[in-house]
Amino acid sequence: MIRRILAIARIEAIITRRNRWLLMATVIMVLFAVALTLAGSAPTGTLGVNMLTVSVASMTTLSVYLAPLLALMMAFDSIAGEAERGGLGLLLSYPVSRAEILLGKFLAHIAALAFAMVIGFGTAGALAALSGGADAASLAALLRLILTSILLGAAFLSLGYMLSALAGSATGAAGLSAGLWLVFVVLYDLGLLGAVVFDAGGWFTQKVFPWMMAANPADAFRLWNIAASDGVAMATGLAGAASALPIWVAPVSLLLWPVLGLLLARRFFGRLEP
Amino acid sequence: MADSILHIKNAGKSRGAMRVLEGVSLNAEPGQRIALLGHNGAGKSTLMKAVLGLTTLDDGRITVDGARPGSAHARTVTAYLPEAVAFHKSLTGREQLTLFARLAGSDMAQVAGYLDRVGIADAADRRIGTYSKGMRQRLGLAQVLLGRPKLALLDEPTSGLDPISRHELYAIIDEMAAHGTAVVIASHTLTEVEARTDRIAILRDGRLVADDTLDNLTLRAGLPTRLRVRAHGDAAARIADETGGTRVNGVSVDLLCTPDRKMAELRRLSAMGEAVADIEMHPPRLEDLYRHYSKGDSQ
Ligand SMILES: Nc1ncnc2c1ncn2[C@@H]1O[C@H](COP(=O)(O)OP(=O)(O)O)[C@@H](O)[C@H]1O
Ligand SMILES: [Mg+2]
């Protein structure tokens, strides 16, 4: 089983490298992370925190948008595209299970994402630390940002596979992925915000809103980073929601999503007739 | 049929309201080459996918070397060449074949040998995106050879191949059969080469309308032999008149006769003396047989 998963992962890794996906994702991460860090260097003095802390805070916001986007772009074609090209039927004529195919692709894609995250956030973090100072807490925050970004990417990779298996065509999967990104990353928060404003600090805002935030992987990512770091919380001003929840909620949510996504992906993949 | 590698019994499948397979029974023994003929949409690919476990049947039963289609054992002993092979463009032929070898659990050292056997050793380290259709088809064939399968299912393997490549393809098929592989070749076009199969099965609208050797099918169809008689001078009209044949291009007459009437007709023609310049004989060809069985003349 491991042998076959690795065989698939190896091929996917080659493809990711050859079609310049790895390069593109890494360049995007570095560019955005560095640009945000440089742009965020101004208010350092007024907040009284070191520059790496501020940099991590702005990169957290960046990652909420970018990690899901990159993951979905990598994942959407992987099943539907292969089915369209006719390669899936051939692959499945070999003694390899759908779960093994899925895990092999996941392994290669998450490795590529991790590479891009480490290089991107690492470069920007190093830049911030060198020019504006860092301490143990901000270094830990940077490390946490990288790890949680990889987890967030994993969640959306698995959801991307699910849509890819569901859509039946690569074009359809691309459309669904764009929709999913919009819902999870933008509309969900807008909806919650609207509800909070309407509720005006009542029962919903106190009891339900934090849990609903934690249920969305993108928000769970935000909460985890905020809850764990006072500096980041201060910089993003989301401390309220974070403090209303037990400390374990956001991490559990972010860890469960990739598993749930992969299970759903396997389920829909099973229904796909190549 | 205990020694059948492939055993299909009463296979039936619907897609929506349409019956794409109905009561199909077919066996393949080791070393047999079976041509599965039928027009587009007859159900050839569907039958192959059912044997591979890629699609499920509504009725009937299939076993591959005693195992359920799609089971680990069935997949291990089966090789497949899909109708439209499209490998990943950015991989090289060697990388693609190496993946298949790893999945099949076969010896990595054989990969180079198989690439050589199908004649793409020189292009092995080039990206598949640069391959011609024929080269991709050869790569597809190389993965069929991997691991010495007991059953090989080739879906339209000759499409897109030039005559020489087609010849090489049949040589490879013969070689596989000689090693004991049962080979099923689906096709909707006929060439004389396809007569180099041990059995011919014909699908029409999801039903198997023929499954026999070429000789037996010919016998059973009772198709007429065509005699083309070329007349001397202006004798064509007289010959057509006396024999009841039809005139073609002014100087010739076509006669159709059943196998048992053939000699009598020839004697009658030679009795006409000088009027007859030449006689060509056209026994029924595979193409006529195919038309006979697949168009429903047999009913
Ligand atoms: N995935 C599918 N969905 C719906 N109908 C299909 C599908 N695949 C094949 N068919 C239909 O099933 C019939 C048999 O198709 P197929 O097995 O591909 O024929 P052949 O390979 O002999 O040309 C055709 O009428 C075709 O339209
Ligand atoms: Mg077909």
Q: Would you write up a description of this structure?
A:
Chain B: Residues 6-230 form the ABC transporter domain. Chain B: GO terms for molecular function: ATP binding; ATP hydrolysis activity. Chain B: It comes from Sedimentitalea arenosa. Chain B: Keywords: ATP-binding, Nucleotide-binding, Transport. Chain B: InterPro entries: AAA+_ATPase, ABC_transporter-like_ATP-bd, ABC_transporter-like_CS, ABC_Transporter_VariousFunc, P-loop_NTPase. The complex is a heterodimer of chains A (274) and B (299). The model of chain A has no long low-confidence stretch (mean pLDDT 88). Chain A is globular. Chain A has helices at 2-18, 21-39, 44-47, 51-75, 77-85, 87-92, 98-132, 136-167, 170-199, 203-215, 217-228, 230-236, 239-243, 249-271. The two termini of chain A are 22 Å apart. By secondary structure, chain A is an all-alpha fold. In chain A, helix 7 (98-132) packs antiparallel against helix 8 and helix 8 packs parallel to helix 14 (249-271). The longest helix of chain A is centred in the middle third of the chain and has 35 residues, at 98-132. Chain B is α/β, with parallel strands linked by helices. Helices cover 33% and strands 27% of the residues of chain B. Chain B has 10 helices and 13 strands. Chain B has helices spanning 44-52, 72-77, 93-104, 110-117, 133-145, 163-178, 214-221, 236-243, 262-271, 286-294; strands at residues 6-15, 18-28, 33-37, 59-64, 78-81, 151-155, 182-187, 199-204, 207-212, 225-231, 246-248, 252-257, 276-282. In chain B, the strands form 3 sheets. A 6-stranded mixed beta sheet of chain B has the order 5-6-7-3-8-9, with helices on both faces. Chain B has a 4-stranded antiparallel beta sheet with strand order 11-12-10-13, covered by helices on one side. In chain B, strands 2-1-4 form a 3-stranded antiparallel beta sheet. Chain B is elongated, with a radius of gyration of 24 Å. At the A-B interface, helix 1 and helix 6 of A face helix 2, strand 5 and helix 3 of B. The complex binds adenosine-5'-diphosphate and magnesium ion. The site of adenosine-5'-diphosphate (ADP) has 10 residues of chain B, from helix 1.
